[in-house]
């Protein structure tokens, strides 16, 4: 299957890492239309180019704290058609929740070590550009198991596994393949999650997104 040729704006203040990522993306058929070393530069380039996806380091100058995540949240608010994939050296559950507060479509959060795994990084990039969700498995695990006292605690171990994979952006078919079960079995687990989270069917039926947001809000801080 031919990969979609994505237009990307990349924000990373390390020149070495930035150049390496540009080389990787270009080799995989993406077009890096602009790069930025600061959050303000990122916002300018996104507004100018309106890429398919912005790839953003959470820690950016001048303070190297949350400039990147604040810029990502702003992009989601002002240019919702642009996918946002952020990456970080460490798991920051509060920032993941902050990024997803406006909805879990066209957004991703990866650890930098995952970015180094080219196939996983590219899969996440395309998923986000297509309006999906791509959350690092370690981030999802921390969010789900981080704190108790929530509706997440009512889930069985298998239902948690299914929810974690849903949060990473996998379809029922993909979840079934990963867990080596039937797609019908996955549908039953997903239905159980919806029931326990009190998510009735709606006309738009975006319960998958709501299920992800439920446990992020209850366990992500």
State the separation between the terminal residues, measured CA to CA: 40 Å
Radius of gyration: 17 Å
Order of helices and strands: EHEHEHEHEHHEHHHHH
Count of strand segments:
6
By oligomeric state, this entry counts as single chain
Give the low-pLDDT segments.
none
- What would the average pLDDT be, to the nearest integer? 84
Strand content: 5-15%
CATH superfamily of the largest domain: Response regulator
**Cross-sheet strand order for the largest sheet:** 2-1-3-4-5-6
CATH class of the largest domain: Alpha Beta
Q: What CATH architecture label of the largest domain applies?
A: 3-Layer(aba) Sandwich
What is the overall silhouette? globular
The number of domains is: 2
Fraction of helical residues: 40-55%
Largest sheet: 6 strands, parallel
Description:
With 221 residues, this protein is α/β, with parallel strands linked by helices. It folds into two domains: 7-135, 3-Layer(aba) Sandwich (Rossmann fold); 141-219, Winged helix-like DNA-binding domain superfamily/Winged helix DNA-binding domain (Arc Repressor Mutant, subunit A), CATH 1.10.10.10. The chain is 52% helix and 14% strand. It has eleven helices and six strands. It has helices at residues 15-27, 39-49, 67-78, 93-100, 112-115, 118-129, 137-145, 157-167, 172-179, 183-196, 207-219; strands at residues 7-11, 31-36, 53-57, 83-88, 107-111, 133-135. The N and C termini lie far apart (40 Å). Residues 7-127 form the Response regulatory domain. The modification 4-aspartylphosphate is found at residue 57. Residues 148-208 form the HTH luxR-type domain. This is Response regulator. InterPro entries: CheY-like_superfamily, NreC/VraR/RcsB-like_REC, Sig_transdc_resp-reg_receiver, Tscrpt_reg_LuxR_C, WalR-like, WH-like_DNA-bd_sf.
């Amino acid at each position: 299957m031919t990969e979609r040729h994505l237009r990307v704006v990349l924000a990373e203040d390390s020149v070495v890492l930035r150049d390496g990522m540009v080389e990787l993306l270009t080799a995989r058929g993406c077009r890096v239309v602009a790069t930025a070393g600061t959050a303000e530069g990122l916002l300018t380039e996104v507004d100018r180019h309106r890429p398919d996806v912005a790839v953003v380091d959470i820690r950016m100058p001048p303070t190297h704290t949350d400039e990147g995540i604040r810029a990502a949240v702003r992009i989601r608010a002002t240019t919702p058609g642009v996918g946002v994939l952020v990456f970080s050296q460490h798991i920051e559950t509060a920032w993941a929740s902050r990024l997803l507060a406006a909805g879990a479509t066209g957004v991703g959060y990866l650890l930098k070590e995952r970015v180094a795994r080219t196939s996983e990084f590219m899969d996440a990039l395309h998923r986000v550009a297509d309006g999906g969700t791509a959350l690092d498995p370690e981030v999802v695990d921390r969010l789900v198991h981080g704190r108790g006292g929530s509706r997440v605690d009512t889930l069985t171990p298998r239902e948690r596994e299914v929810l974690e994979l849903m949060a990473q952006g996998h379809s029922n078919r993909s979840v079934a393949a990963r867990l080596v079960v039937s797609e019908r079995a996955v549908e039953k687990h997903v239905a159980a999650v919806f029931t326990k989270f009190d998510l009735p069917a709606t006309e738009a039926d975006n319960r998958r997104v709501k299920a992800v947001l439920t446990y992020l809000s209850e366990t992500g801080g």
